[in-house]
Write a structure and sequence with these properties.
Elements: H1 18-21, H2 25-37, H3 42-60, H4 85-96, H5 103-109, E1 112-113, E2 118-120, E3 123-125, E4 133-134, H6 150-157, E5 162-167, H7 171-179, E6 184-189, E7 195-200, E8 206-211, E9 213-223, E10 228-235, E11 239-244, H8 245-252, E12 258-263
Parallel strand pairs: 1-4
Antiparallel strand pairs: 2-3, 5-12, 6-9, 6-12, 7-8, 9-10, 10-11
Helix pairs in contact: 2-3
Length: 268
């Protein structure tokens, strides 16, 4: 999902203390992540104040995350290409379990379907997102680029750590993952009016592709393991944001509520 494709998708406003207004939420979130690994130093002290800012910014909206299931240590990584949200989200999630892999390396390792888009008298012929990335990563969705579904990203993630496929319409599954410190990547249809585009692969497989396809990383929630009111997600376009459970379920339903739990090999 590219920024140019979200002209109608409204970013949430943030109330920022004066000290951090010039720095920004994303930078503060990165400093929070650093505070976990840095020895005592002025930088760590500065990172500690960043954590205070993140908590205050969340609190200023009246959001009360379940502290046991909020992963403050997971940093924000902004996607480097118009449609590279999947590998950008994977980089964020891997950093959350202590694995540092640059986005370019993840992109090189991601399976790709190089089928060129063709218009025929029987409809569009294009690639299969369940086999590899479809289209141009620097293109526009859905005209010249699309993305990739959970199967190829799982293959890539398993090169660096272990994963578990979960359902993000199951509050207990989300709570279990987060309580272990495991971020969860999920697929979401963005835009004011999500829709489905269809095409066929050269082999004749029918593809149903939600527009606009996007990935986000679940890092916390408000509520309980039995009843989630809303979720805190890291969006590779614009850092952390909050979605109500109802909206989250509506958007992830386009992808059958799939989620990829990124696990730490050392911690299980």
């Amino acid at each position: 999902m590219g920024a140019s494709d979200m002209s109608r998708y409204r970013r949430q406003e943030r109330t920022e203390p004066a000290r951090w207004h010039r720095v920004g939420f994303g930078t503060a979130a990165i400093l929070v992540a650093l505070s976990v690994y840095l020895p005592f130093s002025p930088i760590r002290a500065y990172a500690s104040t960043a954590k205070d800012y993140v908590e205050q910014a969340i609190g200023s909206k009246g959001w009360q995350p379940n502290a046991r299931a909020f992963l403050f240590h997971v940093p924000f990584h902004r996607q480097e290409h118009a449609l590279s949200c999947e590998v950008a989200s994977l980089r964020t999630a891997l950093l959350g379990v202590g694995v540092d892999v640059p986005e370019w390396e993840l992109w090189l390792g991601l399976p790709k379907d190089y089928t060129s888009k063709r218009y025929t008298d029987k409809g569009i012929v294009w690639g299969d997102p369940s086999k590899g990335f479809v289209g141009n990563v620097d293109g526009r969705m859905p005209s010249t680029g699309y993305g990739v579904f959970i199967e190829p990203l799982t293959v890539l993630a398993n090169d660096y750590t272990s994963t578990t496929r979960i359902r993000v319409d199951d509050p207990k599954a989300i709570d279990t993952a987060l309580s272990k410190g495991h971020p969860v990547i999920t697929w979401s249809a963005l835009g004011d009016y999500p829709s489905i585009r269809e095409w066929k692969t050269p082999e004749g497989k029918q593809i149903q592709a939600p527009i606009y396809e996007h990935t986000i990383v679940i890092v916390g929630y408000r509520g309980s393991a039995d009843w989630i009111e809303g979720l805190y997600v890291i969006d590779p376009l614009n850092s952390i944001r909050y979605e109500t459970w109802k909206e989250f379920q509506m958007r992830t339903a386009y992808f059958d509520h799939v989620g990829l739990e990124i696990r730490s090999k050392e911690r299980g």
